[in-house]
């Protein structure tokens, strides 16, 4: 026999309506104004006449005398309105926590025996609780929708239904609409009788606090009509939510994680939610396991076209989240791909003493959770120094309409509240020696939050412990005279005692660039030369010889001069030359024959062209990892299903005589490839037999370092992909000239989803881009020696050629070493 809880805790929430106070004042009562003091305690009578005295002293104890008159009024109204004929339903959604009972995996599934038995026990409890209260006359039933792991026990989510005259409905709604009301009932907890699966309640009394929300019939209907999926993610696991052309109109996923974690939801693709159809198409996330209006974290509707790749990351405030998807089945195809994971619950805020750092909203760049308050104190390390704040991002729920201050979510710095975007000119502010920062989110609607960079400075020492560039920006001290320009104006490399063609030995001596790292002795023995030439301490992004040495000369490869002792900088130089002497993709044009001789078309059996690829040697092709992800019906991951067509310009099923065709022997997907965020989106394909190079078939060069390109490099993306969003593949190979877009600009456009293995290219005004079917194909840039280098692999983008949504490519320099491991 297992004792049932001694105390059950739950809370009631609903959206407060202006009527609350009106209603109460009509009764001669008033509501306190501050949110926290708006908590009301109501005595729900189990056995009204018998236990009223016990209840009374409790009320006195809590000091909420007015509630008695409220209750009495409700009773009077109830009696009065029982005679009223127009009845309607009222739905109350809520949760109750049952201590001493624990959540087990079988409680995830509503069809399990344990779920059914446990639900019945809670339902009986409600029947008794309401049955004996003033609401008893109107109470119909309670349905347990789900269970989750509670803070101290088992949490049950339920809907209670009442059938009451119109006016009573309003009264009940108004009474319950007081924010975070607690219903206290003196009852003894339910006990489990006999086997673990039989439950009953004892007749005694105990205190129960419940969380309740008045809801409309829509929410309740949706719960009943939905196809529901119940999922639980253990820490470290990603659990997926997928819908492909669903047959039903309502879907919901109840997501759970362990109790000291929160849920992070990552939506990867949502397709088919057309604009202007908010009522029928929408994707919503709730901070609760029931679809209650006052628990919405975020809602999307009116999304146009397809969203590809991760566009949103949400966080819950507790260990549950509900995701609902309603759709209009008459419309096109619908696709939803998302996953969720358990993220340890963080304690936000703190006291920091630092020269520089960052402060962000909790879980940034994921959306912050609802109902959170954080407080930070930031202090400069030495009195006399001040703090300089740069507010780089602020996206929070804005103030209510007509309100003149931030009253929903806000960031407060030194007493000033922010909840709206801050203009470029107002982002940097100077504060005193110590600054207090607070962040508040209410229980509804969340956003990305905020991101602040700060540093300490004084007017006499603007870059403490850092190097001050001439343009007054600061860079780390060790950037000074390290041979690399860290200040945008290069001021960290002047006055290093060396002239422009020399490099600094690091010991105060200088040597001609071409002499560095040759193993001779023009830097003294005690110099850093040995170090700066070894693989380990090669400056970041420097070219590395095969033997691990790094010549300090910029871009030593393929320039006809042997810079590495092992000559490796002059190997593999037969690449990147297009034989055309002078010569879709959205917004591109037909490519001339032989202009892009490394372009291959990857075709899968009868499906034809699926992805692009680039030839990097006579045995190897490079493409995107996502081209080889299996779908429900097609095995894209099987190498033997694929054929690479090379040396072609027009995809023509009938005329394949003069082209190079090779079967694929092996597909190597990057081990870090992450399908959810498209990180490391690269795969190597080994051909069954080597291909012969000719005018139309040539390899492209691989760039070992971005220094092979000059600023403003010309780049082209090529492929047979769709010529506009949601349209057909091109027949003739298309080329489009695109610009490389600054990484941090792109990260802002894409909500920080651009990892350092990605790069963006396109045209921010839209109109020119890669598109579906171009994936895996090359982004080729003209680099050193007038050769074309494979700079990126077409990977993803939001739609195609949209304004401020550039194409995202796998950055080859970031995976160069991995490619080399296999292909050299
Ligand atoms: N993932 C797409 C494909 O499979 C390529 C998308 C590129 N999108 C873009 N807007 N650049 O073909």
TrEMBL record:
SMART domains: CUB, LDLa, Tryp_SPc. It is found in: Membrane. It comes from the Eukaryota. Keywords: Disulfide bond, Hydrolase, Membrane, Protease, Serine protease, Signal-anchor, Transmembrane, Transmembrane helix. Residues 227-343, 348-457 form the CUB domain. It is a single-pass type II membrane protein. InterPro entries: CUB_dom, LDL_receptor-like_sf, LDrepeatLR_classA_rpt, Peptidase_S1_PA, Peptidase_S1_PA_chymotrypsin, SEA_dom, SEA_dom_sf, Sperma_CUB_dom_sf. Coiled coil: none annotated. Residues 88-204 form the SEA domain. Residues 585-824 form the Peptidase S1 domain. The chain crosses the membrane at residues 60-83. Belongs to the peptidase S1 family. Snake venom subfamily. This is Suppressor of tumorigenicity 14 protein homolog. It comes from Gekko japonicus. The lineage of its organism: Eukaryota, Metazoa, Chordata, Craniata, Vertebrata.
């Amino acid at each position: 026999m297992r004792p049932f809880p001694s105390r059950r805790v739950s809370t009631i929430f609903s959206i407060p309506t202006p009527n609350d106070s009106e209603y109460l004042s009509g009764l001669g009562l008033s509501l306190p104004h501050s949110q926290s003091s708006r908590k009301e305690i109501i005595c729900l009578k189990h056995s009204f006449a018998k236990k009223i005295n016990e209840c009374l002293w409790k009320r006195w104890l809590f000091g909420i005398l007015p509630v008695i008159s409220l209750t009495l009024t409700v009773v009077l109204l109830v009696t009065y309105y029982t005679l009223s004929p127009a009845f309607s339903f009222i739905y109350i959604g809520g949760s109750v926590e049952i201590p001493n009972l624990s959540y087990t995996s079988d409680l995830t599934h509503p069809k399990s025996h344990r779920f059914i038995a446990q639900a019945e026990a809670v339902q009986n409890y409600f029947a008794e609780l309401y049955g004996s209260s003033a609401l008893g006359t109107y109470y119909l039933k309670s349905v347990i929708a789900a269970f989750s792991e509670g803070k101290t026990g088992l949490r049950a989510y339920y809907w209670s239904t009442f059938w009451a005259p119109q006016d009573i409905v309003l009264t009940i709604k108004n009474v319950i609409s007081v924010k975070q009301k607690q219903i206290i009932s003196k009852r003894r907890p339910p006990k489990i009788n006999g086997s673990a699966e039989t439950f009953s309640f004892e007749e005694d009394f105990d205190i129960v606090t419940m969380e309740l929300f008045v809801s409309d019939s829509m929410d309740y209907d949706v719960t009943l009509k939905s196809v529901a999926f119940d999922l639980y993610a253990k820490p470290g696991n990603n659990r997926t939510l997928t819908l492909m052309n669903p047959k039903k109109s309502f879907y919901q996923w109840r997501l759970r994680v362990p109790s000291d974690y929160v849920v992070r939801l990552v939506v990867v693709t949502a397709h088919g939610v057309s604009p202007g159809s908010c009522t029928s198409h929408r994707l919503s996330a709730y901070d609760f396991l029931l679809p209650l209006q006052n628990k919405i974290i975020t809602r999307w509707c009116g999304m146009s076209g397809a969203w590809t790749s991760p566009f949103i990351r949400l966080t819950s405030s507790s260990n549950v989240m509900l995701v609902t998807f309603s759709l209009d089945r008459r419309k096109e195809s619908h696709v939803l791909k998302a996953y969720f994971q358990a993220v340890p619950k963080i304690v936000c805020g703190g006291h920091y003493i630092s020269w520089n750092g960052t402060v962000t909203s909790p879980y940034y760049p994921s959306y912050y959770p609802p109902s959170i308050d954080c407080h930070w104190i930031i202090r400069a390390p030495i009195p006399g120094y001040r703090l300089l704040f740069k507010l780089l991002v602020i996206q929070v729920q804005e103030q209510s309409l007509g309100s003149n201050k931030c009253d929903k979510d806000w960031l407060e710095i030194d007493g000033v509240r922010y909840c709206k975007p801050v203009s470029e000119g107002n982002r940097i502010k100077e504060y005193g020696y110590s600054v207090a920062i607070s962040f508040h989110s209410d229980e509804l609607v969340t956003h990305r939050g905020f991101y602040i960079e700060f540093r300490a400075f004084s007017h006499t020492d603007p870059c403490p412990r850092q190097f001050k560039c001439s343009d007054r920006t600061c860079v780390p001290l060790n950037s000074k005279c390290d041979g690399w320009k860290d200040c945008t104006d290069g001021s960290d490399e002047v006055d290093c005692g060396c002239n422009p063609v020399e490099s600094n030995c690091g010991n105060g001596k200088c040597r001609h660039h071409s002499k560095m790292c040759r193993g001779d002795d023009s830097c003294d023995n005690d110099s850093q030369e040995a170090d700066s030439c070894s693989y380990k301490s090669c400056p970041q992004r420097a070219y590395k010889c095969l033997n691990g040495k790094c010549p300090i000369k910029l871009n030593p490869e393929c320039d006809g001069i042997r810079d590495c002792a092992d000559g490796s900088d002059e190997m593999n130089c037969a690449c990147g030359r297009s034989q055309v002497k002078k010569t879709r993709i959205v917004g591109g044009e037909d490519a001339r024959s032989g202009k892009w001789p490394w372009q291959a078309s990857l075709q899968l059996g009868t499906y034809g062209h699926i992805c692009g690829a680039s030839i990097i040697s006579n045995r190897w092709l490079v493409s995107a990892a996502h081209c080889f992800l299996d779908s429900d019906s097609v095995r894209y991951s099987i190498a033997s299903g694929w054929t690479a067509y090379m040396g072609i310009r027009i995809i023509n099923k009938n005329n394949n005589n003069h082209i190079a065709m090779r079967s694929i022997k092996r597909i190597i997907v990057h081990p870090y490839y992450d399908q959810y965020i498209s990180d490391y989106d690269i795969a190597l394909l080994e051909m069954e037999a080597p291909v012969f190079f000719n005018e139309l078939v040539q390899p492209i060069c691989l760039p070992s370092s971005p220094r092979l390109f000059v600023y403003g490099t010309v780049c082209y993306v090529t492929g047979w992909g769709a010529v506009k969003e949601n349209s057909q593949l091109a027949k003739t190979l298309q080329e489009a000239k695109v610009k490389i877009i600054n990484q941090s600009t792109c990260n802002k456009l894409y909500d920080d989803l651009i990892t350092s293995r990605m790069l963006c290219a396109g045209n921010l005004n839209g109109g020119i881009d890669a598109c579906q079917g171009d994936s895996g194909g090359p982004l080729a840039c003209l680099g050193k020696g007038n050769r074309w280098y494979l700079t990126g692999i077409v990977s993803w983008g939001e739609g195609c050629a949209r304004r401020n949504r550039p194409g995202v490519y796998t950055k080859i320099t970031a995976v160069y070493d991995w490619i080399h491991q296999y292909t050299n």
